[in-house]
Structures are given as structure tokens and as C-alpha cells.
Specification:
The protein is mainly α and 87 residues long. The protein contains three helices and no strands.
């Protein structure tokens, strides 16, 4: 039997970075590159992230975002750029 939903697990840092990226894409010309049908799931993901991340409304949001970026950035000596996440 097929599972009717797909569950994606993100760390808090991953969720914060993804939320910020989705917001920036929606506010730029890049949004014109996204197929109309793709907006429904993107808006659903963005809405879920917004509800799950109270830190996006914190006064120190920018600092939190930059700290998350530093933690997720590949190491300088790691040229692969790939990230392995735990499930």
C-alpha cells in the first residue's frame, strides 16, 4: 500500500536556512522560473516552516540565520559541497 504523505525531516538549522531561502525566492525575479504547479507545495512548506520556527520573528533573527549558515557550510577543505544528513 502506498503512503499518502511524504515526511521530510530537517534540523532546526536546515529549516531556518530553507525558510529564509524560500522567502527570498518569492520576493525576487527567480520566482518566475518556478512552475505554477510547484507553488502550492512550496507555499505549504513555507507555511509549515513559519509555524515551526518562532525564531524567525526574534530580534536577533539575522544573527541566528548567520550562525545556522556557518554550521551548515561545508568545511573549507571539503570540496564536495555535499551534505549528509541523518534520518
Amino acid at each position: 500500500m502506498e503512503n499518502p504523505e511524504i515526511i521530510i525531516r530537517l534540523t532546526p538549522d536546515e529549516a531556518l536556512i530553507l525558510s529564509d531561502w524560500l522567502e527570498r525566492v518569492q520576493m525576487t525575479d527567480l520566482s518566475r522560473l518556478i512552475d505554477g504547479a510547484a507553488w502550492a507545495p512550496l507555499h505549504r512548506i513555507a507555511g509549515t516552516l513559519d509555524k515551526s520556527l518562532p525564531g524567525i520573528f526574534a530580534a536577533d533573527y539575522t544573527e541566528r540565520l548567520e550562525a545556522a549558515r556557518r554550521r551548515l557550510a561545508p568545511a573549507q577543505d571539503d570540496g564536495s559541497g555535499d551534505h549528509e544528513g541523518g534520518s
